[in-house]
Design goal:
By secondary structure, the chain is mainly alpha-helical. It is built from five helices and no strands. The radius of gyration is 11 Å and the shape is globular.
Length: 70
């Protein structure tokens, strides 16, 4: 799940046209922490899903096989 989470997090951020700094500011964490985010706690996972308007399942790569291609 770590690899797909990192890939999905990057895709979500780019799709939202945000820099790491902008995203970090919106969820009130430092940019260095955002750049090293690999295993978010449940609170952070929820904040990221809301910020990027995606599901937590999508961020974690959980779901149907066709979901992996999106």
């Amino acid at each position: 799940y770590k690899q797909i989470f990192a890939e999905r997090l990057l895709k979500a951020r780019k799709d939202a046209n945000m820099t790491q700094r902008e995203a970090a500011e919106r969820i009130n964490i430092g940019q260095p922490k955002m750049s090293k985010l690999q295993e978010p706690d449940i609170e952070m996972l929820g904040q990221l899903a809301e910020l990027y308007e995606v599901s937590t399942d999508w961020l974690l790569g959980i779901g149907k096989k066709k979901d992996k291609e999106q």
